[in-house]
Amino acid sequence: MHFTLSDLIADITQNGVESGAELVELSIEEIYSQKKDEIHFMVRDNGKGMDEETLRRATDPFTTDGVKHPRRKVGLGLPFLIQTAEQSGGGWNIESAPGKGATVTAWFDLRNIDTPPFEDAPGLFRTALMFDGPREMLLRRVRKGANNLPDLDYEVRKTEILDALGSLDDAESLILLRDYLQSLEEE
Ligand SMILES: Nc1ncnc2c1ncn2[C@@H]1O[C@H](COP(=O)(O)OP(=O)(O)O)[C@@H](O)[C@H]1O
Ligand SMILES: [Mg+2]
């Protein structure tokens, strides 16, 4: 099965949306240097959070049952993110407590051949914005030091997008959204 880092992070973002959060934050930082090339993701929500038992089950590869996503070949979710990060020289961290939301971070070594391709930030941001639920989403994007590519550092808020586009549920606004998100990468 072919998948991208964007697929993995979209799934983690969906968990944030399903947690009942008012605010979901998604940040993508790509940092290139002589020492290492790394991409770092963070998804933070202020939803219901997880107790220790829920967190243990959620990160255990054997509890992915495929029931909720019956057409998927592999249950994505946290176990898949963890496995992918660990198999490619990356890492992960989760902080959560009941009523305190959750913060999931994962990082990947962009020089490791076992790291799946990223895909792109505009595509992942568009997917995130299309999830129904949180009143606000804060999307942050950083890229530093990439060969022949400009440095980037920008933020997008769901409420601003909705103000500008009116809604996100017709084809025309989704096209405008795609073009707008794409334009932010071409500063
Ligand atoms: N951000 C989160 N906030 C609260 N609970 C979460 C969060 N992320 C994961 N969970 C818990 O972990 C479970 C497993 O997550 P996941 O592996 O993505 O599978 P799924 O979302 O299909 O249930 C969820 O059903 C939920 O109980
Ligand atoms: Mg999930």
Strand arrangement within the widest β-sheet reads 3-4-2-1-5-6
By secondary-structure content and strand pairing, the structural class works out as alpha+beta
Whole-number count of domains = 1
- Give the termini separation: 34 Å
Report low-confidence residues grouped into runs of 5 or more: none
Order of helices and strands: HEEHHEEHEEHH
Question: Mean pLDDT score, rounded?
Answer: 92
DSSP E strands, number: 6
Q: Any idea of the CATH topology?
A: Heat Shock Protein 90
In helices, the fraction of residues equals 25-40%
Q: In this structure, how is the largest beta sheet organized?
A: 6 strands, mixed
Described by the principal axes of the CA atoms, the overall outline is globular
- Supply the number of helical segments: 6
How big a fraction of the residues is strand? 25-35%
User: Bound small molecules, which ones?
Assistant: adenosine-5'-diphosphate, magnesium ion
CATH class: Alpha Beta
CATH architecture annotation: 2-Layer Sandwich
Rounded to an integer in angstroms, the radius of gyration calculated over CA atoms is: 17 Å
What would you say this structure looks like, in words?
By secondary structure, the chain is an alpha+beta fold. The chain has helices at 5-18, 52-58, 77-87, 121-130, 158-165, 171-184; strands at residues 23-32, 37-45, 91-96, 102-109, 136-144, 152-157. The protein has a single domain, classed as 2-Layer Sandwich (Heat Shock Protein 90). It has six helices and six strands, in the order αββααββαββαα. Strand 3 and strand 4 (102-109) form a beta hairpin. Helix 1 (5-18) packs parallel to helix 4 (121-130). The radius of gyration is 17 Å and the shape is globular. Residues 11, 15-16, 19, 45, 47-50, 54, 58, 68, 77-78, 102 line the site of adenosine-5'-diphosphate.
